[in-house]
Design a protein that fits this description.
This protein has a two-stranded antiparallel sheet. Helix content is 52%, strand content 4%. A hairpin with a 2-residue loop joins strand 1 and strand 2. It contains six helices and two strands; from the N terminus they run H-H-H-E-E-H-H-H. The model has no long low-confidence stretch (mean pLDDT 91). It is globular, with a radius of gyration of 16 Å. Pfam families: MDMPI_N.
Length: 178
C-alpha cells in the first residue's frame, strides 16, 4: 500500500510538468527535471528487476527519456505487474544485502520515491503534499545514517529550524534546504 501511495504522488507531480518545464533545475544540483525523472524511472525499473531476482547493481543506468510520462507509466506498470504476483516472503537484493521484499519496498525504494517527489514538487514550485506515514517511514530508515551524507547519494544534513514540520526535517536530514 505504501508503494502505491508513493508511486501515485510521484505520478501526480510528473504529469504536472509543463511541456516547457523539463529543463527546470531541481534541488539535486546536477539534475534538471528531465534528469530527475530519468533517475526515478530507472529506480522503478530496478525495483521490478529486483523483484524478479536481479542482484543490486553497483551503478544504475539513467537516461533522459524522450517521453518521461510514457516511460514512467510503462516502468510503473511493469513493477506493479510483478508485485501483484510476488511472494512477500521472497528475499530480494537491496543496498544493504538481501532483505524481504516488503523491507526493500519500505526502505530503499520508498526513500527514492518520497525524496524525489519532494525534489520534483520543489522544482515545480508546488506543495510536496507527501503522505505523513511515508515521511515517517523514510525518516526511520535514514535517521540511523546520522545525516552525514552517503557517498554521493545524499548530502550532509542541514539544520532544521525550530518547529519545522516532519517533511522539512526529513529533507534537511538528507541535505536538502527546505
Amino acid at each position: 500500500m505504501t508503494t502505491k501511495i508513493a508511486l501515485d504522488r510521484f505520478e501526480q507531480l510528473l504529469t504536472a510538468v509543463p511541456a516547457d518545464g523539463w529543463e527546470r533545475p531541481t534541488p539535486c544540483a546536477k539534475w534538471a527535471i528531465a534528469d530527475l525523472a530519468g533517475h526515478v524511472i530507472a529506480v522503478v525499473r530496478l525495483g521490478r528487476e529486483l523483484v524478479l531476482g536481479a542482484e543490486f547493481p553497483q551503478a544504475g543506468e539513467e537516461t533522459r527519456e524522450a517521453d518521461p510520462v510514457a516511460a514512467w507509466r510503462e516502468a510503473r506498470q511493469g513493477l506493479e505487474d510483478v508485485l501483484a504476483k510476488a511472494d512477500p516472503a521472497t528475499e530480494v537484493a537491496a543496498p544493504v544485502g538481501r532483505v524481504p521484499l516488503p523491507t526493500m519496498l519500505d526502505t530503499f525504494f520508498l526513500t527514492e520515491l518520497v525524496v524525489h517527489s519532494w525534489d520534483l514538487a520543489t522544482a515545480l514550485e508546488v506543495p510536496p503534499a507527501l503522505d505523513p506515514e511515508l515521511v515517517r517511514k523514510v525518516d526511520d530508515y535514514v535517521r540511523p545514517f546520522g545525516g552525514e551524507g552517503t557517498d554521493g547519494v545524499f548530502d550532509p544534513a542541514v539544520h532544521s529550524a525550530a518547529g519545522a514540520d516532519e517533511t522539512t526535517r526529513l529533507v534537511n536530514l538528507l541535505g536538502r534546504v527546505a
